[in-house]
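Q: What changes when NAP is included in the input?
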Amino acid sequence: MVNVAVIGGTGYAGAELVRILSAHPHAELTTITSRQHAGQPFSDVYPAMAGIVNLTCQAFSEDSVSEAADVIFTAIPHKASMGVVPGLIHRGKKVIDLSADFRFKDPSVYEAWYEPHEAKDLLKTAVYGLPEFYSDEIRKASLVGNPGCYPTSVLLPLLPLIKAPFIDCDSIIADSKSGTSGAGRSVSLTTHFCEVNEAFKAYSVAEHRHNPEMDEVLSHFAERKIRVTFTPHLVPITRGMLTTIYVGLKKDVSAQEVSSCLESFYADKPFVRVYPKGSFPNTIYVRGTNYCDIGFQVAEGTKRLVLISVIDNLVKGASGQAVQNMNIMFGFPETAGLDQPPFPL
Ligand SMILES: NC(=O)c1ccc[n+]([C@@H]2O[C@H](COP(=O)([O-])OP(=O)(O)OC[C@H]3O[C@@H](n4cnc5c(N)ncnc54)[C@H](OP(=O)(O)O)[C@@H]3O)[C@@H](O)[C@H]2O)c1
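A: The predicted holo structure follows.
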């Protein structure tokens, strides 16, 4: 059994961590922190958890969190994370950070897209928490930078194919649609009901902060520079993300060649399901689960491959993936706490 704390437990990603950890067979949730809700029972903030989570939210204190937990999830905004993570790491704790602060290997890329980095030294040892590709490193890590939701949905379909000789790495276009919970719980006009309901819009076109994150990982695996043209969209659903990726092909390939690359890579990976040619995933097939479902089509006569992935942005895109990382770090079964079947519809 491992003792666990969630920093920022009243945000959407934090509350999803609390939900998953409350039923985890090897984790004891001991601490939930929040500034706005300190002193309030967690179940007052999220009444759905009444009778399931009996903890009271606390203000963050490095001393009390370190005393109460062996592993700490930081589910707070970027910049805030780099303020608390170094102290916890120096006390010998394991940390899984859900913000962007520890995802980049190159601090200058982080600084170009976010802000000055105040804990650059930790970037050398932080591991990018995409378990399907970095599980050996995650197993030994003290600090995991949990991936962004958009990069997760782009990287999982693309990475097994990126070194295939038929892929044109200079032609990748990714187009994602995200549910509104991706923007977090704090109130803003952008996510106001009247602005989102019955609406569908693109934003941060070809300049979203998740673009350099996916480029860095793809370039690492391709062993050459890759720049994805990436456009995110906001859709009027609460949770879920669907990504469509268009990739140029250097030669005609059969669906069989594509499917054998994907299927052979994911055969022993519990959370990625590859669909047969001509079947395509839907966000409702993965709602509330840690699955990433992938479909594809070779567009006849166009030398282009289309890949489609779906995830739940709060689970495989955030908190489920973070728990998967904890499982690997502590030698628990990778699926522990994450093995509930999806809703059929
Ligand atoms: N939502 C998603 O789908 C998603 C997906 C992947 C990654 N993430 C990442 O997960 C983290 C949390 O996102 P979220 O969507 O859960 O956001 P959120 O709903 O806005 O929650 C943020 C949480 O952090 C706390 N907080 C806010 N500002 C803080 C500060 N300056 N210092 C300490 N705590 C602070 C808030 O509680 P108090 O104000 O009460 O302290 C709240 O508990 C972010 O880094 C985000 O990028 C989110």
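Observations recorded in class: The first strand starts at residue 2 and ends at 7.
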